[in-house]
Amino acid sequence: MKNLLSMEHLTNEEILHILDRAQAFENGEQPQVVRSYNVANLFFEPSTRTKTSFEMAERRVGCTVIPFDAGFSSALKGETMYDTVKTLEMIGMDAVVIRAKEDEYYNELLEGIDCAVINAGDGAGQHPSQSLLDLFTIRKEFGTFKNLNITIVGDITHSRVAKSNASALTRLGANVRFLCPEEWAGDFEAAHSWEDVLEDSDVIMLLRIQHERHAVSKNFSKDGYHDEFGLTAEREKRMKTGAIIMHPAPVNRDVEIADELVECERSRIFQQVRNGVYARMAILETILKGRK
Length: 292
Ligand code: NCD
What we know:
By secondary structure, the chain is α/β, with parallel strands linked by helices. The chain has helices spanning 12-26, 49-60, 81-91, 128-142, 160-171, 222-229, 233-237, 269-289, and strands at 38-43, 64-65, 95-100, 116-122, 149-153, 175-179, 203-206, 244-246. The structure holds N-carbamoyl-L-aspartate.
């Protein structure tokens, strides 16, 4: 594996290998990375979890993390993504972790770039490291993906998390369903009422409304969305025994999920963050082991 760009590029075997290594790291195994590789994190969109989690994982697998501040970089002077990454490669980077607002920004890096590219989110496209940590969280809980009812709720069309997870989970045997307002379903077939999905879901995966990706800002009422599509305390009580709640975060409390449910017994929201470090260590190990 040279790069990690999209879940669509991974085979089921590659996915399961990364999950197994994440589990090994959680169990205390040491990463098999032969030297200290140089890595930079290029975040052109806001991030709390993903950036910090990558940096923690990079340090834990023995990388040297070279600081890069996207907000003060020459990208602001019009430099292309290709020239930015080529420059960092010439300085000595073995890998770059990139988040950008353009869908598939990585296409311009496929030729002429030798350092590894790890996609930390491309616009409304893909978010493979989030998907791998979500899969890790689900497998830890249920031991399998087969026949699980997984319901992804919210701003489906604008969410890279929804797209990465829908394709990977379906391929691994889960029954993925969607619940959202009609205008956010895009090409996906979605339910528009909790009644269709609430009581038989094993996983309810909530999404933040991606306001920054809406072409026209919707006349949006937080309470209206919460009443219709949010996970309320009353709805949580009707969930199946053993069912869990997930959310990639950041959470908007009392919009997609009731404040009091964020850390309830079913919620895995903060465990997902913890699992993310192991999943990213596994991604880095898999990619860096293949380099000279
Ligand atoms: C997500 C993202 O950036 O796509 N966050 C994350 O990486 N944990 C989800 C979001 O911003 O809503």
